[in-house]
Amino acid sequence: MPKLSRFSNKIARQVGAVRPKAVPAKIIRHAAMFHGDIPTTHRSSGIGEILNPPSSRAPTNFVVHEDWAEKPVARREISGVVYTPDGLAFQGRAVDLDLSTSRYMSVGQLLKRQALWNLETVNEGTIVAAEHPNTYGDWISEHMKSLALAGKIREPLLLPARFANRAYVGEGLTRLRIAWKIVDRPVLIRSATALLKRRPINLWTANEVQAYRARLGIASMQPQPRSLIYLSRSGVVSEQRQADRMYPSAEIARIVERAGGRVVLTGRTTSNEFRSLAAEAETVIADHGAAVFNLLEWNTRHVVEIAANNWWSSCFVFLSASLGADSHGVIAADQHPGDQLEAVIGKHLGRIGDYQAHRD
Asked: Which contacts (CB < 8 Å, 24+ apart) does range 233-237 have?
């Protein structure tokens, strides 16, 4: 087991910084499901704490703060809100970031970028407040999740133009059977419902997973025994232009193919194609990235996550736990150069089953 004590306090502080009152009395412990590395430099999505085992013989525990996510999706009814193509919500001349699809914007930038005259007017509609409007993962965790759990909303859903032109957005709303309108110039909504931001972000509980799957009609297909796929980010550029994340994708692809697995290039795979992989996804090896949220469509038993030291979030560890996965491993690829990588991946697969039998 890795030694995690030096990360625990930092992550706990970040959780508290999100909303100090969010520290709950109730927690859920997911024991004995984790094995692997923690990247030296990492990001926390504010979704929980990684703690040392309570004794030297106990397994590492992942502690999920459950209280926040178990609450219903909070709504606010608003009269006369102006919503912009960037997803900013104005009341009067003041922006309300609690209602916006953003969290960092200065007044000077707002005045330069937004023209709040010549408004289009709609009588009613719904807006989704979120921290991030950047990637497929943001769309699933902060938009689709809120909409799926909210039940019936006041239509249409008003979508910022900066986000609405992505294929997965329209596809997701079609699956939810929600009518939407693209906001390509500032619009005055006379009577609006705002689905408020959910914190900590990127936290999924088991109950939420079940409700999400039920709303989208996701079938409970069991994967074939010893099936293995690798979700490779080879050739992918982050939608939010983060620092480059370098994964040894070509080497991992060769390892997976020798083990009888299938390599899936996430940047060239459509949402429908991801869903069709359910029968092949008993074990998933994946470069850390938004495509890992496709676990919501599958009944994966084992996850091996490939991390990079310059970018990692623990969100998928907790997602695996809430999905009922048997194990989740993390490999910090930077720490295992050259020939070491195959041995480390083999060690992880050895915990799961006999994938050696598939070798040529």
From this structure: 233/266, 233/267, 233/287, 233/289, 233/291, 234/265, 234/267, 235/265, 235/267, 235/268, 236/266, 236/267, 236/289
Residue with tokens 């997965």: 168
Average per-residue pLDDT in the chain? 77
**For residue 283, how many C-alpha atoms fall within 13 Å in the half-sphere facing its CB?**
22
Instruction: Please give the full DSSP string across 86-128, using - where no structure is assigned.
Output: T--EEETTEE-GGGSB-S---HHHHHHH---SS-EEEEEEEEE
Tokens of 334: 């930077």
Task: Tell me the two tokens of residue 192.
Answer: 């609006």
Residue range 86-123, pLDDT digits in tens: 888 988 777 888 888 865 555 555 554 555 567 899 99
CA pair distance 293, 18, nearest whole angstrom: 23
C-alpha distance from residue 108 to each of 113, 119, 131, 134, 261 (Å): 9, 21, 20, 22, 52
The two structure tokens encoding residue 311: 């970018």
Q: How many CA atoms lie less than 13 Å away from 346 in the CB half-sphere?
A: 14
Strands laid side by side in the 228-232 sheet: 34-36, 327-332, 302-307, 283-287, 228-232, 262-265
- Which runs of consecutive H residues, i.e. helices, occur in the chain? 5-18, 67-70, 107-113, 136-138, 145-150, 161-164, 167-176, 206-216, 249-258, 271-275, 315-323, 340-352
Asked whether the beta carbons of 85 and 79 are under 8 A apart, the reply is no
Phi, psi of 332 (to 5 degrees): -80, 95
Token look-up 């959780």 returns 15
Compute CA distances 273 → 213, 255, 264, 268, whole Å: 17, 23, 10, 10
Work out the number of other CB atoms within 10 angstroms of the CB of residue 184: 15
- Interval 30-58 mean pLDDT: 42
For residue 328 the two structure tokens come to 């989740």
- Burial class of residue 243 in the structure, from the number of CB atoms within 10 Å of its CB (0-12 exposed, 13-18 middle, 19+ buried): exposed
Residue 313: its pLDDT value, please? 78
Which residue, among 243, 316, 309, has the nearest Cα to 40 in the 3D structure? Answer: 309
Rounded-to-integer distance, Cα 139 and Cα 172, Å: 9
